[in-house]
Hints:
Shape: globular
Number of helices: 6
Protein name: Histidine phosphatase family protein
Pfam families: His_Phos_1
GO biological process, one term: fructose 2,6-bisphosphate metabolic process
Binding site for substrate: 9-16, 59, 83-86
Number of strands: 6
InterPro entries: 6Pfruct_kin, His_Pase_superF_clade-1, His_PPase_superfam, PG/BPGM_mutase_AS, PGM_Phosphatase
Amino acid sequence: METIMYLIRHGETEWNQVRRIQGHSDIALNELGVRQAKQVADRFQGETIHAFYSSDLSRAHDTAAKIAGNFQSSVSTRTTLRERCYGEWEGLTYEEIRERFENQDEASCGIETFEDMQRRAVAAMTEIAGSHLGEAIVVVSHGGLINSFLHYVTVGEQGTGITRIDNTGITIFRYVDRRWEVLSVNDTDHLKA
């Protein structure tokens, strides 16, 4: 029995627009992000979806809630689906980070390692998929976490440092016989409507 997972990045926030690091900071969807959430929700009209999950951060939860609302369903939240924690870098632009932390390594700034985030992502996705064998599920998370999972599944062929995950981009995975397979990456056709 297989699980089909639609793994979706949240809609846009003001910090996305100005390229501020969000991490665990709870930043709401902006006006465009709310529109994107509605567009991705409309994309699932007529589909059979059995469960909805998201990060507990509002930008992800509100995107998931828009989709789940079309199914009169609720969203289960998981802190394990959060973006990478960026510690002292959160709220800053890349230029500000270069200026302020030029000679400091990531660990001294309280930043979660890529490996820790990836392990967290793999464990969360596998636990969720294993609970929904034979079903289709929607999971709304964050670009960094999605890319780290994609990197794991493709053994580095796609994902972190290679693949762009757009706001409300849909990446589809199949989980069968305890193995992951990528079906499509960063589908944003719903935004063109």
